[in-house]
Write a structure and sequence with these properties.
By secondary structure, this protein is of the alpha+beta class. The chain contains 11 helices and 10 strands. The strands form 2 sheets. Strands 1-5-6-10-9-8-7 form a 7-stranded mixed beta sheet, sandwiched between helices. It has a 3-stranded antiparallel beta sheet with strand order 2-4-3. It binds 3,4-dihydroxyphenylalanine. The site of 3,4-dihydroxyphenylalanine (DAH) has 13 residues, from strand 8, strand 9 and strand 10.
């Protein structure tokens, strides 16, 4: 019995070695291991052999099976490697599915381009920052509510003696301080970055984006601020759009304003979308003398203006897009993102 198995093995090895193609190889395999294949039938013999030989027979069966399987695998590899598949290299290929930029990236690129064309340099500043740069140097009083745990994300790090605790930047205005400390006027910078606040509902997300402009030089006045804002509104939203400044209060600018842009739906007449013909876009103002001094600039020599607006909001105002829930923007859900 054992000899029969060994013969079967040797015969099969010889057949496999001579085999020329994959189809033939498969046939050899079926003749051996198929339902009524030679090996299958031989293995059934185990029922008829004396008990004392059963163990040895079982071992031989396994050995033969393993050896043949190895032989088949090797031969299959060899035949596959030899197979030459003809193909036409000029055939158009299947195109991969192309993705696109996220709406926010797209908005950032467009905003940066408008300002770069009028001489602003795009800068990047830390998003994990010290309290001093985000608040202190920007003239925020010690007890200002924005410095509270409920408003800002503080980072679990030892406090700096000089700059206080660390936090995630709640606005891009911290970039103003970094800029004035590291570069001498004339300054014309645009800082577009992520901001973090403890807020979440349909129109607020804990992470969002702002773009912050800063211009500092001798003899900078509100007219420069107005001109720059108007230029942005016309370039970004369309030549028919105009802006207006509404008095407001920010700690780090004096005077400070809220900037409104004329509504494109009613052309300034007043409609459901806007407040009496105007849409609010963000804050702006003349750099506060204390802020200039904190950065080592003499407010009697230098003056400047700054503005800080939300990227998501500005882009939605332009595209007329209304997202029922701001969280969808960052949900990574392709069904949503494909529509943006
Ligand atoms: N940092 C302000 C905020 O997040 C926005 C702002 C207001 C920025 C006035 C400015 C400015 O540069 O001058 O609400």
């Amino acid at each position: 019995m054992k000899e029969d198995l060994i013969n079967l093995k040797n015969q099969a090895i010889a057949q496999i070695a001579e085999c020329k193609d994959l189809e033939e190889l498969e046939q050899i395999r079926i003749d051996l291991f198929g339902r009524s294949g030679k090996f299958t039938l031989a293995s059934k013999e185990i029922a008829n052999i004396p008990v004392e030989e059963k163990k040895q027979f079982g071992i031989t069966l396994n050995e033969v099976k393993n050896t043949l399987e190895e032989q088949f695998a090797e031969k299959r590899n060899e035949l596959n490697n030899n197979a030459r598949v003809w193909f036409d290299p000029t055939m158009p290929s299947k195109l991969p599915k192309l993705g696109k930029l996220h709406m926010v990236t797209h908005a950032i690129n467009e905003i940066a381009e408008v300002f770069e064309k009028i001489g602003f340099t795009r800068m990047k500043y830390p998003e994990v920052e010290f309290d001093y740069f985000a608040f202190g140097a920007l003239n925020f009083p010690e007890n200002h509510p924005a410095r509270d745990d409920w408003e800002t994300f503080f980072v679990d790090q030892p406090e700096s003696k000089k700059y206080g605790p660390m936090l995630l930047t709640p606005h891009t205005s911290s970039g103003q301080i970094r800029e004035m400390l590291s570069n001498k006027p004339p300054i014309r910078m645009i800082n577009i970055a992520k901001c973090y606040r403890r807020q979440i509902d349909v129109s607020h997300y804990p992470m969002f984006h702002q773009f912050e402009g800063l211009v500092v030089d001798k003899d900078i006045s509100i007219t420069h601020l107005r001109g720059t804002i108007d230029h942005f509104a016309k370039s970004f939203f369309g030549p028919e759009r105009v802006t207006r400044l509404r008095p407001y209060h920010f700690q780090f600018t004096e005077p400070s304003f809220e900037v409104d842009i004329s509504c494109n739906v009613c052309n300034g007449k007043g409609c459901k979308l806007c407040k009496e013909g105007w849409l609010e876009i963000g804050g702006a103002g003349m750099v506060h003398p204390n802020v200039l001094s904190n950065c080592g600039l003499d407010p009697k020599v230098y003056s400047g203006f700054a503005f800080g607006w939300g990227v998501e909001r500005t882009y939605m105002m332009k595209s007329g897009l209304s997202v029922p829930d701001i969280r969808l923007l960052y949900s990574s859900d392709l069904r949503v993102l494909k529509q943006l």
